[in-house]
Predict the 3D structure of the following.
Amino acid sequence: MSGPIPLQWPLALSALLFTLGVVGVLTRRNMIQVFMSLELMLNAVNLNLVAFARHSESITGQVFVLFVFTVAAAEAAVGLAIIIAFYRNKQTLNVDEFNLLKW
Amino acid sequence: MMPDIHYAAILPELCLVVFGLGHLMLSFTVREENKGSLAAMAILILAVAGATMIPLWNHPVVTFAGSYAVDNFALFFKWVFLLAAVLAILHSGSYLRQEGMEHGEYYTLLLFAVLGMMVMASARDLMVVYVGLELMSITFYCLVGYLRGRLGSNEAALKYFILGAFSSAFLLYGFSLIYGITGTTSIAGIHTFLAAHPEAMAAPLALAIVMVIVGLGFKVSMVPFHFWSPDVYTGAPTPVTAFLSVGSEAAAFAAILRIFVSGLSGQSELWTGLVTALAVITMTVGNLMAIQQRDVKRMLAYSSVTHAGYILVGVVVGGSVGSATVMFYMLSYAFMNVGAFGVVAALNRTDGREGSNLDHFAGLAKLHPALAAVMLMLMLSLAGIPPTAGFFGKFYIFMGAVKANLIWLAIIGMLNSAVSAYYYLRVAVYMYMREPEGEPQVMVPVSMRWSLAASIIGIFGLGLFPDAVLALARASAAAF
């Protein structure tokens, strides 16, 4: 086998991961699983960016990935804190229990 | 090699970072009885940041290798953010004291949310748009869930967080596709590339545009991505709701104008149709839902969905004319919406019972005539009745649509505006024509009075001298 991986492969994988993430967010009932699906969506984007950066031989996409990483870390910290605050008051992480405010 | 950074141009942002962190440090040393000074310090920081922007007016600068523009367009939006933040902080102090949650980090988070909005307004690169958007959103997740002992606040924060992260993943996927198609993340670069290759990858580009519209549409609570806003607005602390409804919407519209009206102007056939349809759906659905609400906070949430629909008409008109009308609208919206939520915040706490139900407004004219009069004027402005800011905001937007040969769109907007008068004036009917239940004490703290007075001066100032402000907005929009 020789030659670089064609651009379509990572793009197809990224689209698949993104779709999995979307389905996960919409169907999972546990908060933590929803959260993991969100991270999957972000990483699908990262794969996209790296693949495009490699293909067009520009560094911008890779720099963008670093920013996405950093923001995702901050988002995870805040998100988990919010989940814990919710758990303390309600003793559950089931999405169906969000019934105080009309969804 | 030193990067070429124009530090004077980013002085307001530096101001907020440095003083914001300083405020956080200092807040640990402030004693319980002096907590009121925290709000004053935060307002002072915002005022200093606002003052450092004055010399930048009419001296457009592009720095950070073309990714950050400090032009009049950005400055206009930044002043709107600062104004909304100051008005919201004036409402915050006594509200938080009542809840026993007056801590320094609240103000620091608020300052950083303003910083995120400023970055968004100045961004000329998709990467910078994303970082600004997330800085604003993450701080808002914290602020919405600030009353952490309250289940309503927890739940609102959790919903806002999940749906916010979900939508920004879509935005990001759209950005990555745009980068893949054009090979750059610079908005100017995208414009140049698409001008040179007008037929480049129309299908992936259309997909990318739809995803960006999903992401930014969420932030402005555009139907069908508005499901979060009534819940989050109701569950969040009311002063946070006031700031969220204005600030996050204004920042997202600044980014929409930069990306669509400036960057993707050559591809307008790919997005104007979709945005026009969404504008019509947004104002109509927002109105129909607002009519059914008996909770004033929730009614105001749906009403801000409706207003997002009106503002989208300005985006569809596009160019410097449409942009200027959007900017004028955002300024008037800052005065009236923060004011309206402020009245809810003032009533919420002093009325013995919890809540912002319409019944709580019954007989307010007898209990507190001044507060009722303020609410009446704010409602008239939101409904768009002259001579208020709300009237001229809508007037300019619909006039822009008429001039752009979108007469049917202007007519739909005006019909919606007429319908919206029903639920705004219903509040007035409750205040003036119903008897109060019991004898609740309504006392408005001094800082809230200042904020409400500023809102009233703002809506009538803009209502009496709209042309001067519109000319200012036109001058700002011409060059971006």
